[in-house]
Amino acid sequence: MAARKVKNNVLGRGISALISEAAPIEEQRAEEAADPENTVRYIDINDIKPNRNQPRKNFDSEGISELAASIQEHGIIQPLIVRTSDRGYELVAGERRWRAAREAAVDKVPCIVREFTDEENALIAIIENMQREDLDPIEEAEGLDTMMKEYGLTQEEVSRSVGKSRPYITNSLRLLKLPQDIREKISEGAISAGHARALLSAKTKALQEQICQKIIKDGLSVRETEKLVKDGGKARKKAARSRKDPDIIAVEEKLKEIYGTRVAITTNGRKGAVEISYYGREDLNRIIELLESVK
Questions:
Q1: Which of 107, 57, 45 has the alpha carbon at shortest distance from 82?
Q2: How far is 261 from 201, CA to CA, in rounded Å?
């Protein structure tokens, strides 16, 4: 019963109410604060340890360095959320800021101290990362799996707490059925979650791994992957490409050089489409920046 009560408190109050990251950044004395629970304290960064329940395993070093440079210029504009531990404090939310602050050689960081249980701490870490879309697809799936298996949440409770539909939850969890090496390729951004879901339909793990390698080697789109899976991994005939207008092929090659990824142009009479492939969130952001730079 106690565990269920804790869980309902986490889901019922909402993540923003629990971590209150809109609290003022100015340091205050607890006795002077109108809302002591949201008092900002400046804590020695060496007294804060990472969250052992952090679902995020991969932190982009370049992104951390960029944030560190911003912190050196402007300071930390949003407090970290911590809880007390046997040896100082443990992070609840804000590990990316904590890492960047360490890189920026910051001595003390603004924090809000909350007294969370182990279960609340774990759930909040998962929910916060998912709501901010800070997790790669496998980290996200593992976080959802933890919420259900270790803390007994139903799919409905998970759906409500992270703001995702139940079909989304189901499709995410299915990724954990893939072989470990394919899951690593997803986390690395070598293949997308869409590619991964297509691979789930392959009849054997060996076929999944074979097609995964082909996706990476040939830059296959999700639709092409689906067709390959449906055909049992048989190589597509290249005759169709030879019938494509040489001028179109030349344009595809030119765009491939510009965007650094596979570009396919399809035509149907006077209409057609241009498909630009990407292989992860960072790759997508890179392509969007290139497109936005076109005047």
A1: 45
A2: 26
Cβ partners under 8 Å of residue 22, min gap 6: 16
How far apart (Å, rounded) are the C-alpha atoms in residues 96 and 185? 23
Residues taking part in catalysis: 95
* Alpha carbon 205 to its chain's center: 25
Domains and CATH numbers, the chain: 2-170 (3.90.1530.30), 179-230 (no CATH), 242-292 (no CATH)
What six digits make up the tokens of 48?
């804060």
Q: Which amino acid is at 124?
A: I
C-alpha dist (Å) from residue 94 to 3, 83, 143, 168: 25, 12, 17, 26
Three-state secondary-structure class, residue 22 = coil
Q: In this structure, what DSSP letter does residue 175 have?
A: G
Q: Render each residue's pLDDT in the chain as its tens digit; 295 residues.
A: 344 444 555 454 444 444 444 344 455 554 455 555 668 889 999 999 988 777 776 777 888 898 899 998 888 888 988 888 888 898 888 888 888 999 999 999 999 898 888 778 777 777 777 766 667 899 889 888 888 888 888 888 888 878 888 888 889 999 999 999 999 999 888 999 999 999 999 989 999 999 999 999 999 998 899 999 988 877 655 544 446 788 888 888 888 878 778 888 888 777 888 898 887 777 787 888 778 777 5
Residue pointed to by tokens 């009560």? 5
Structure tokens at 64: 């951390």
Here the tokens at position 224 are: 């092409």
Place of tokens 């799996």: 145
